[in-house]
Design brief:
There is one protein chain. The chain is α/β, with parallel strands linked by helices. It has one domain: Rossmann fold. The protein has ten helices and eight strands. The chain starts with 18 loop residues before the first helix and ends with a strand.
């Protein structure tokens, strides 16, 4: 289908690339436009493994959701949700516990319109407009309060948003506010690209995403810096590791973990 035939939401400027739609392209999706594909190809020219990293991040979220459902977590809030794909959070969670409730949080018009259409008939799953940097507004959202009981444990999923937010915007404070608002027994799930093993790629990739996001700041981080997001919580085994090492379904999948330079971790609020 051509870009012209796709009928983007009214007011959406399809000439400006978007991170969520670029990720859709990395995953082999169709909900992207020429500007998204052009920017994504620039990224792939520098680091072709980004396509694999996108798929590995999606697989990690599935493993983390399964792990948490098996331990009694039945409420999930996924912040910075990408475009709907196969094996979404609600599909994984509800395949194990049909009563599981899932709220997606997104601010991209294409993501919101697709998610709203997909979830319109599912009373246990919903989507709201919002973002990580406005935690107070998110926590006060009527739909979140309707679907999610913050007096009971909840899993906060941040599968990719943090890696695009520079320190100047206060992402550590935002995560801490969300952590403080949820009940003891809640969990925080984070995946974040790091440049520990690919320092030479940092500059060129940061430049592309600065242009895409219209920002001048550098949002890149090392593993040690990502670890700070879990302050005040208890990381569960195996800790903050390269994403292939986080409870792989097949031990062979964890080989050469540094080749997919995204780290991932799950932590529990204990007090």
């Amino acid at each position: 289908m051509s870009d012209a035939a796709r009928r983007p939401p009214a007011g959406l400027d399809t000439s400006v690339p978007n991170v969520a739609r670029m990720n859709d392209y990395f995953l082999g999706g169709k909900d992207n436009f020429a500007a998204d594909r052009a920017a994504a190809e620039e990224v792939l020219a520098i680091a072709p493994e980004i396509r694999t990293m996108a798929k590995e991040s999606q697989a990690f979220v599935g493993r983390a959701v399964r792990h948490l459902v098996e331990r009694g977590i039945t409420q999930f809030v996924s912040i910075g949700s990408g475009l709907p794909t196969q094996r979404n959070v609600h599909q994984v969670a509800q395949s194990l516990d049909p009563a599981a409730r899932v709220l997606y949080v997104a601010d991209d018009p294409v993501v919101l319109s697709h998610a709203m259409a997909l979830l319109a008939t599912d009373p246990r799953t919903s989507v709201v407009r919002g973002d990580l940097l406005h935690p107070d507004e998110l926590l006060a959202d009527h739909e979140l309060r309707r679907l999610i009981d913050l007096e009971r444990p909840v899993a906060l999923l941040i599968p990719s948003a943090l890696q695009f937010i520079p320190g100047e915007d206060g992402p550590f404070k935002s995560v801490a506010l969300l952590r403080d608002a949820v009940a003891v027994g809640s969990h925080l799930v984070i995946a974040h690209a790091v440049f520990d093993t690919r320092p030479e790629a940092a500059g060129p990739l940061v430049d592309i995403y600065r242009r895409v996001l219209g920002r001048s700041e550098d949002a890149s981080r090392t593993r040690k810096q990502v670890l700070r997001f879990f302050d005040g919580m208890e990381l569960i085994d195996p800790g903050l590791v390269y994403i292939r090492q986080w409870r792989p379904d097949n031990p062979l999948a964890a080989q050469r973990p540094e080749k997919v330079w995204t780290v991932a971790g799950v932590a529990r609020k204990t007090g």
